[in-house]
């Protein structure tokens, strides 16, 4: 489906300006994200992968996004990216990963690999203490 954006000429009438402001024109980032999502769904369907469920696309993408965010947080903490020579002899570096189960709102439990630093100084900011909701017991 293709969307068409029509140019609107604004008058000096405040009511017309308010109406024009209410028209949502997607920016290029939203369009790019939409195209990426569509392509992922197409590829999943062609490969016979379900969109939801234990082996589904949504769960895999959620895992990837969480792990990428944690890896970026570690890069920020250490001050250099993965495989960057600036990290050699820095006193603290990446030290593999550890497995952890996280509970997400959209996908339930997901096994992720949490990156570690040698000095054990990294404490993630996006972490909440786990609590089991009564309806999931």
Describe how the helices and strands are arranged.
Elements: H1 14-22, H2 28-47, H3 57-78, E1 94-104, E2 108-117
Structure description:
The structure is a single chain. This protein has about 140 residues and is α+β, with helices and mostly antiparallel strands. The protein is built from three helices and two strands. Strands 1-2 form a two-stranded antiparallel sheet. Strand 1 (about 95-105) and strand 2 (about 110-115) form a beta hairpin. Mean pLDDT is about 75; it is low at about 1-15.
List descriptors.
DNA recombination; two-stranded antiparallel ribbon; 137 residues; globular; DNA binding; 2 strands; alpha+beta; disordered N terminus; transposition
Strand content: 15-25%
3D shape? globular
Largest sheet: 2 strands, antiparallel
**Helix count from the secondary structure assignment:** 3
Counting DSSP E segments of at least 2 residues, the number of strands comes to 2
Instruction: Tell me roughly what share of residues is in helical segments.
Output: 25-40%
What value does the Rg take, in angstroms? 22 Å
Structural class by secondary-structure content: alpha+beta
The helix-strand sequence is HHHEE
Mean pLDDT: 77
Strand order of the largest sheet: 1-2
Low-confidence sequence ranges: 1-13
Short overview:
This protein is of the alpha+beta class. It contains three helices and two strands; from the N terminus they run αααββ.
């Amino acid at each position: 489906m293709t969307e068409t954006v029509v140019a609107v000429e604004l008058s000096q009438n405040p009511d017309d300006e308010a109406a024009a402001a209410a028209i949502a024109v997607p920016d290029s980032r939203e369009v790019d994200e939409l195209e990426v999502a569509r392509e992922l769904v197409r590829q999943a369907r062609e490969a016979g992968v379900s969109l939801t469920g234990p082996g589904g696309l949504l769960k895999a993408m959620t895992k990837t996004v969480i792990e990428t965010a944690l890896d970026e947080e570690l890069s920020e903490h250490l001050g250099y990216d993965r495989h960057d020579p600036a990290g050699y002899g820095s006193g603290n570096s990446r030290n593999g990963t550890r497995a952890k189960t996280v509970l997400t709102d959209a996908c339930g439990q997901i096994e992720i690999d949490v990156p570690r630093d040698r000095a054990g100084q990294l404490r993630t900011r996006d972490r909440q203490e786990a609590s089991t909701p009564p309806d999931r017991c």
